[in-house]
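Saturday, quiet lab. Running sequence design on the structure tokens for the scaffold JK sent over.
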């Protein structure tokens, strides 16, 4: 975990938490606006010409808010928070998503939604307080050594196979059952499939972004250029590719499923993969105490409860 400017370690963590809350609130608003744009376009009569998403002002505004807040917020959070803490702190987005879905989309905010929202807030505070682990920045050689470890390679191969299988199954359903492709159940299944892919790719893009920022930190602190080799630039290209792909599949999921259902599901997938990414890649499993593990498991169980999708 790095420090931001001249701030103390505790000040850097506090800054990361505040920026995280602000950025996730804007992201949730952006996603809800995109979903609202899709709903309004689908409600048009058949004789009206339906515009593609990129030609709708509401969708453009939502996408702009999501991308800008994601880039600015993630840049500060990555430099101030460890990966497991960063990924679980994103649960605050569930709270803002529930509020936006109620206010903008007119979806009900039930008693269980309120209970789940309170649990998420408590869990986020616990994780931000007790979940931090000292995490020094790495050089390119150290990152390449971590990248070449057998457990991480097997983990990434498994993830690639899983993503391909999910995308293939979704396309197969569309080909095999063209008449049922617009049924509520099929739309829900396909939307959740796209959401799962988006969550997986988003978690991996966070890991790559974390590595890229560490190279930048080492370049500044040690005054040794870590971007004078092709592997560093491949890392940056990989980050761009993963970010664009996860946005694409999130967009496809939003066209089919409400944010009150899709966002909690994407978060659950993202949370699991991001935590495992950090623990496996940075070899932190031995550093995670039993108390921290129980806190994260308890928090994840709270955040993934059905109340957030109510």
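Result came back. Writing it out in full:
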């Amino acid at each position: 975990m790095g420090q931001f400017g001249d701030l103390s370690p505790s000040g850097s963590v506090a800054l990361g938490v505040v920026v995280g809350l602000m950025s996730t609130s804007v992201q949730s608003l952006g996603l809800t606006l995109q979903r609202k744009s899709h709903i309004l376009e689908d409600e048009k009569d058949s004789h009206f010409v339906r515009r593609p998403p990129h030609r709708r002002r509401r969708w453009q505004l939502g996408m702009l808010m999501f991308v800008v807040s994601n880039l600015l917020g993630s840049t500060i959070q990555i430099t101030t928070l460890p990966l497991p803490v960063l990924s679980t702190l994103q649960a605050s987005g569930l709270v803002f998503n529930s509020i936006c879905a109620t206010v903008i989309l007119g979806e009900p905010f039930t008693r269980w939604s309120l209970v789940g929202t309170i649990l998420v807030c408590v869990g986020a505070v616990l994780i931000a307080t007790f979940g931090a682990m000292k995490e020094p920045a790495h050089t390119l050689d150290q990152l390449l050594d971590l990248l070449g470890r057998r457990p991480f390679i097997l983990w990434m191969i498994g993830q690639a196979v899983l993503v391909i299988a999910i995308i293939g199954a979704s396309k197969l359903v569309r080909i095999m059952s063209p008449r049922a492709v617009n049924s509520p159940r099929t739309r829900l299944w396909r939307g959740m499939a796209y959401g799962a892919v988006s969550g997986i790719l988003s978690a991996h893009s966070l890991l790559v972004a974390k590595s890229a920022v560490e190279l930048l930190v080492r370049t500044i602190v040690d005054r040794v250029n870590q971007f004078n080799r092709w592997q560093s630039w491949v890392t940056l290209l990989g980050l761009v590719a993963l970010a664009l792909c996860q946005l694409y599949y999130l967009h496809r999921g939003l066209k089919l499923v409400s944010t009150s259902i899709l966002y909690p599901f994407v978060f659950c997938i993202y949370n699991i993969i991001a935590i495992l990414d950090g623990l496996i890649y940075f070899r932190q499993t031995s550093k995670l105490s039993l108390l921290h593990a129980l806190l994260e498991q308890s928090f994840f169980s709270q955040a993934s409860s059905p109340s957030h999708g109510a």
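Notes for JK: The mean pLDDT is 77. The chain is about 75% helix and 0% strand. Ask whether to fix the surface positions before the next round.
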